[in-house]
Amino acid sequence: MKILAIDTSTEACSCALHIDGETQARSQLAPQQHTKLILPMADELLAEAGIKPNQLDGLAFGKGPGSFTGLRIACGVVQGIAFAVDIPVAPISSLATLAQAAYIESGNKHVLATIDARMEEIYYGYYILNEQKIMQCEIADQVAKPNNISLPSTEQWYGTGSGWIYAEILTNNLGTLLQNYTIDKYPQANAMISLALESFKQGEVVSAENVNPVYLRDMNIKPTNIGLTH
To answer: What CATH superfamily is the domain 2-93+187-210?
Structure first.
């Protein structure tokens, strides 16, 4: 399959192009610059591969939770392309992408993925590796104060993501069930690819008009179309 994936849900802006088992990616930690960066990243990857958007089989994007503005940008980009070339879209949880990266990079199979939600809150999700080597959500992604977060089982868990700026509170709450954690991790489009491939395999995709973000605090965000040339 040929899949273009993007994530602009946090401070990191990233894009990945997967073609028949090979993935190339671009990423930059650039708060408030996603509008300027994401389309050139996508154009570069497509140009280097020698393909146009109408040759893609599908798209994937970080649907959230995350930054209000960042989620609107990602939705606008994929919706614009999907409408233009009539291809399906796989909406992927930004927290699932974090969890998948934790498995890819360190082999962690039980992951508490977090994103700083501001307002002294955290977006978080519990993810466990399934038989297909895909991080699967055990409980729906949520938002809460860090001192209200606990673990759903007696397994050893690994923490990842920007929500671990509240590490002192979280480690006190989670105790010996917490194996370790990493703070400076953000959702990356290259880690989204395996999740997107599984979504396409399972038919968990949507058409352009049904592309919507998940913000948890506000489920009624409307995307703004931004498209690539085709």
So the answer is: ATPase, nucleotide binding domain (3.30.420.40)
